[in-house]
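hey so i finally got around to running the thing on that chain from the lab meeting. sorry it took forever, my laptop kept dying and i had to restart like 3 times. anyway pasting the input first so we r on the same page abt which one it is
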Amino acid sequence: MRKIIALGSAAAVVGLVGVTWWMSRPAGEDRFAQCRETSIGTGITSIGGPLSLIDQNGNPVTDAEMFTKPTLVYFGYTFCPDVCPLDNARNAEALDILIERGYDAQMAFISVDPERDDPERLRDFTDYLHPEAYGYTGSPEQIRAASQAYKTYFKKEEDPDPDFYLIDHSTFTYLVLPETGFVEFFKRDEGHEAMADRAACFIDAAK
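ok and heres what got predicted. didnt touch it at all, straight out
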């Protein structure tokens, strides 16, 4: 089990924000139908799309440059005391399984805390997570746009301490495939082996 030391110094209760998507077309038209455990309304709710962010090396990037291979995407922040480290440790274990099976995949951590998560801090965080983990930040406007694109939620606590505030945020992990884009999300209670199995199904179906 990959162990992550929480970087925050305060305890938090992180809100889980549920999002429900309903099928908008017959399953027979969905080439990924055999892989799904969620219902995604591809015609009603558009998830993903163009992104403009800053990578962990301080370079501006777009979604085309971020998602050159199958990617497990998570929105969080490095000061998160519990949920983010645990979720990303799970994602790293799933990624290890995929790589061991011969899949060329990666994981991405998009910060919802651009005030504290500069590229250097993100690089330290993702280097600890996994060799194939990459961090992204940006201006508040860029982060808000990315969050809206993926239908995520985050909210900074009211009247925060300038150094030790917490952020309430959603905790889904998204699977994004090159050229295809977003195809599925994984909830917190899904184990790393099940996540790897389903991600592999989507990757194979996209070929």
